[in-house]
Specification:
Blueprint lengths: L1 H25 L5 H5 L2 E10 L2 E2 L7 E5 L2 E5 L5 E9 L6 E7 L5 E10 L2 E8 L16 E7 L5
Antiparallel strand pairs: 1-2, 1-3, 1-9, 3-4, 4-5, 5-6, 6-7, 7-8, 8-9
Keywords: Signal
Organism: Gemmata algarum
Protein name: TIGR03067 domain-containing protein
């Protein structure tokens, strides 16, 4: 009887491990550029339509895989997905904001240098920016610093 119980336990363990391995097979490996962006970021500068509005934007962003979450100073959150294309000059990004009324899509450019991440974007359908400056109402520039992990 003991051998039967041990066999069932080993069989259950094998099935569980196989399920985990199969789950991993379905996942796409994380893009190396996106991998550099993983973690918690704090907004250091924000501009909308050519105006510095950093004081009004107390944002923290967390990037996990290709998903991001931004929390504002009042506890509100926005979520979405992100795609990076480092092969373009300047490097390009596209992201969505997931909302109850559907997804909003944005396109832009970015720079990622160590612990500094800078973006300039506009609503999809507008002309993609080529420099880190805004002119249109839908445009924004954001600069982020990687948050230091406190011991």
């Amino acid at each position: 009887m003991r051998c039967g119980a041990a066999f069932v336990l080993v069989l259950a363990l094998c099935v569980a491990l196989r399920g985990t391995a199969d789950d991993k097979k379905g996942e796409k490996p994380l893009d190396p550029e996106l991998k550099k962006l993983q973690g918690r970021w704090e907004l250091t500068y924000h501009e909308t339509a050519g105006q510095d509005d950093t004081k009004e934007c107390k944002w923290v962003m967390v990037v996990d895989g290709d998903r991001w979450t931004v929390t504002d100073g009042d506890g509100g959150t926005s979520k979405g997905t992100l795609r990076l294309d480092p092969t373009k000059k300047p490097k390009q990004l596209a992201y969505t904001i997931t909302g109850a009324d559907g997804d909003q899509e944005f396109i832009g450019i970015y720079e990622l240098d160590g612990d500094t991440y800078k973006t300039c974007d506009v609503a999809k359908g507008k002309e993609r920016p080529t420099e880190f400056a805004t002119k249109e109402e839908t445009g924004q520039v954001a600069a982020w610093k990687r948050a230091k992990v406190k011991d």
